[in-house]
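Structure ticket #2291
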Amino acid sequence: MSSSAIDLMQSATIVASSYDSTSDECLGGLCRPTGVSDNGNGQQDNDLSQWQTANDTTCSNQWLQATFNGYSTVSSFWVQYGDLPTTGDLTVTLNPTDSSPVAVAASQLSCVTSTTTDVDMPTRVDTCTFVSPQVNVDGITFTWSFAKNPTGCQMNVEEISVSGSALTASPSSSASSSLSPGAIAGIAVGCVVAAVAVGVAAVRARGIYLRKKKAALQEGQSVYLH
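Resolution: structure written out below.
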């Protein structure tokens, strides 16, 4: 038995492979992993917080893991990326309560890509719905892989929302996740995408974006820009 749909990220414990603590837009802890859920309430809004990875000269995989507050049913998720031009290939792994973590197969997801606006900058949103809701799930892990880049790899995520419901009855010992066991190829939700603008236009647009965020913080706005 389950309750109505909620954003499971709002009460999840969130950790990640790295985060940026030195860039101007990240001072004061604004780029910690918990930024993907802070003050977002499951909406694609002008949220001041974000998760930004540390710049990695080796371009190793970056991951973010959310452990839910109890076993849950997961029906869909979306990822809103920030303004940095690098977005890696995404693999999603669910953590069933009764088996080892399993990567989600392409056949289990229906995904679309759209664009929304954050602080007057267009940002990419990947929205994915499970063909069948995934039951008895403890958590979810998002892993991004990158092509090699001589200047290093860095990305940011404004928000992640995972829609589902917390189960109100304990799963029986005979219950099993709807995920198929064994090795399953990960779903590549996205690929490395180019910057929204290139050259001087991109540099100027990002400068405006960062100045607006800093100005909002100086004015004491801790939730959204309107």
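Closing remark: Confidence is low (pLDDT under 50) at residues 173-204, 220-226.
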